[in-house]
Amino acid sequence: MDTDTSSSRQTARLMLKMGCLAFGGPSAHIAMLEDEVVERRQWMSRQHFLDLVGATNLIPGPNSTEMMMHIGYERHGWLGLLLAGGLFVLPAALITTVLAWVYVEFGDLPQLAPLLWGIKPAVLVVILGAVWRLGSRALKGWRKALIGLGVLLGVAAGFNEILVMFAGALIGAFWLQATSQGATLSGLILFPALTATGAGAAAIERADVGLGALALFFLKVGAVLYGSGYVLVAFLEGGLVERLGWLSSQQLIDAIAVGQMTPGPVLSTATFIGYLLLGVPGAVVATVAIFLPSCLFVGLLNRVVPRLRRRPWPAAFLDAVNAAAVALMAAVILKLGSVTLTSLPSWGIALLAAVAFFRFRLSAVWLVLGGGLLGYLFHLFGWI
After folding, report:
1. CB 147 within 8 Å of CB 191
2. How many CA atoms lie within 13 A of 209 on its CB side?
3. CA-based, 20 to 30 A from 374: which of 84, 91, 119, 354?
4. Please, which residues have CB within 8 angstroms of residue 353's CB and are 6 or more apart in sequence?
């Protein structure tokens, strides 16, 4: 393991550079990292890089952030892991904190409101694009599609999204690995099991927000966040809006929109929410809490997880988790769409963003910027 000081500085500079320039979502982040680490610097082979990418899909947390941590751990152990993860997240966290301050101080002023109004429909298209891409693989085959549908029905019924997700993962893993007779039996109980799981948790009483409660919430989310950073939206909507009542749906979509405007991981949305609820201490606590589980998982499983993908049961669990994660994201689109697409101009922005994304393959960054610009223009012409 390379412990040379100049090597540590090289790693630190690369991760800070990635944190400042990595727009476009996890897939874009990982593609940029592969170019830097494999092509340009030749720090590892392409095969080993692919093994690490596979490892990030087997553990909870944001894939691109965990890839940065893996690179840091490979080169400098635990210290490198923390350095790489921290420097990758730092630019987004700082920018998001500044934007959160602006939002709290000036968010209701006309100068900012039209921009956020226009960004919201574009964000929905970004999430839809992620569902489309991931769903084409995660829901391949009727069994995986049925797992996803069961999770979607459970969430739509108002049950706890985390428990429903794990029910789908566990039942789905058994179903995918069972014999033909066992699989048929599992299929018969899949829907009632998913829709019944979490019924008691849906009735959790609302609690006052505090640093301890905020830390516990984001630690829990960081520890079970499979699939994609956009699955975070499902957990936030179900936990902070529906059960705890700390945020409104409108505040949540604003937080997602601001998270899309910054480089680095989508999970920097947690920084925005932390500041919105408890100022700078809340921003720090929420950011550390949501990324801490990833640090532990990567450090403990770096040498072990790549081998698990070749074993039947871990692979089946991963397939079921991915199907459940896509279903959660689909449920979010339905919920947030009902409070965002409320006028012809908002539908117009969403349709334009969809054409730009699906036809011309524009990145999420351009969709967000374009949505904000259209929102501002619509405001100038008095259309909103």
Report:
1. no
2. 21
3. 91
4. 121, 122, 125, 126, 367, 370, 371
Q: Is the dihedral of CA 307, 311, 317, 320 positive or negative?
A: positive
**What is the longest distance spanned by two Cα atoms in the chain?**
64
Distance of alpha carbon 148 from alpha carbon 30, whole angstroms: 26
pLDDT tens-digit readout, 299-308: 988 877 666 6
d(CA 325, CA 127): 12
Average pLDDT over the chain reads 81
Asked whether the beta carbons of 320 and 147 are under 8 A apart, the reply is yes
290 and 92 Cβ atoms separated by less than 8 Å:
no
Average the pLDDT over 131-149 and give the result: 84
Segments making up each domain of the chain, as ranges? 5-87, 110-380
Q: Which amino acid is at 261?
A: M
Quickly tell me which residue has 């012409």 as its tokens: 381
Q: Tell me what the mean pLDDT of segment 252-258 comes to.
A: 82
Q: Tokens representing 286? A: 């929420």
> Does the CA dihedral 221-226-232-236 come out positive or negative?
negative
Taken in order 321, 285, 122, 19, the sign of the CA dihedral is negative
Q: Chain centroid to CA 253: how far?
A: 14
